[in-house]
């Protein structure tokens, strides 16, 4: 699950990003409305956390522009307590939910998860089955036959990228981008490390290496 945070209060943005990353989300952060619209408009996000008072372009306009362009990504608006937010206006521009600052982090995470659940309920089943592998992307649980396999948050996220595109080649760059974030500057070979751990935990024959292209998860 990939989230975008559009928030100009850098400390708040950073602490939200840290917390949500620890929950297993891949999180990107931008600090102004124009960048926010640009990034969110590229697609590829499962949810956008959008502040209202932003330099460049305010959150209402970002939200309205995304909806006008046909993007249906869930949007959670953040607002200050001083009444800058007009709930009716926010919902009019197409926001799915809003949260008034200062909010508790626990409440934010609960709202984020509720929006993602609501979205899933409207769409495809969260459970992917490939041969003896069963991955519940909502509960974040993995089974081999009847036996549950315990994965770390990052291991699960790498597996999720492969299983939602089972049968297709997924490049290392793609996995990096979705599981880590666009600012990740470490060694891209970290993906190999996670894939070899997954192979150890899930057994051989499930995750194939496609030379020069990436990985493909398929029924063994
Ligand atoms: Ca702001």
Write up what this structure looks like.
- Residues 125-219 bind DNA.
- Residues 2-116 form the Response regulatory domain.
- InterPro entries: CheY-like_superfamily (IPR011006), OmpR/PhoB-type_DNA-bd (IPR001867), Sig_transdc_resp-reg_C-effctor (IPR016032), Sig_transdc_resp-reg_receiver (IPR001789), WalR-like (IPR039420), WH-like_DNA-bd_sf (IPR036388).
- It holds the Pfam family Trans_reg_C.
- The structure is a single chain.
- A 5-stranded parallel β-sheet has the order 2-1-3-4-5, sandwiched between helices. A 4-stranded antiparallel β-sheet has the order 6-7-8-9, covered by helices on one side. Strands 10-12-11 form a 3-stranded antiparallel β-sheet.
- It has 8 helices and 12 strands.
- The model has no long low-confidence stretch (mean pLDDT 88).
- It is elongated.
- Helix 2 (33-41) packs parallel to helix 3 (59-68) and helix 6 (153-163) crosses helix 8 (190-202).
- It has 220 residues and is α/β, with parallel strands linked by helices.
- It is 40% helix and 22% strand.
- Strand 6 (127-130) and strand 7 form a beta hairpin.
- It has 2 domains: 2-121, Response regulator (Rossmann fold), CATH 3.40.50.2300; 127-217, Orthogonal Bundle (Arc Repressor Mutant, subunit A).
- Residues 8-9, 51, 53-54 line the site of calcium ion.
């Amino acid at each position: 699950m990939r989230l975008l945070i559009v928030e100009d209060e850098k400390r708040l943005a950073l602490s939200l990003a840290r917390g949500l990353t620890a929950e297993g989300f891949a999180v990107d952060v931008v600090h102004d409305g124009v960048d926010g619209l640009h990034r969110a408009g590229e697609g590829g996000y499962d949810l956008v956390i959008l502040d209202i008072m932003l330099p460049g372009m305010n959150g209402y306009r970002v939200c309205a522009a995304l909806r006008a362009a046909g993007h249906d990504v869930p949007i959670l608006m953040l607002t200050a307590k001083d009444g800058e937010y007009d709930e009716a206006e926010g919902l009019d521009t197409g926001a799915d939910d809003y949260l008034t600052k200062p909010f508790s982090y626990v409440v934010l995470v609960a709202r984020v998860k509720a929006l993602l659940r609501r979205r899933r309920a409207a769409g495809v089943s969260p459970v992917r089955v490939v041969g003896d592998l069963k991955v519940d992307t909502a509960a974040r649980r993995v089974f081999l036959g009847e036996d549950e396999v315990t994965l770390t948050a990052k291991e699960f996220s790498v597996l999720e990228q492969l299983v939602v595109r089972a049968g297709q080649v997924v490049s290392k760059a793609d996995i990096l981008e979705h599981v880590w974030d666009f600012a990740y500057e470490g060694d891209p070979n970290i993906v190999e490390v996670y894939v070899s751990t997954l192979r150890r935990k899930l057994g051989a024959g499930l995750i194939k290496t496609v030379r020069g292209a990436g990985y493909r998860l398929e029924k063994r």
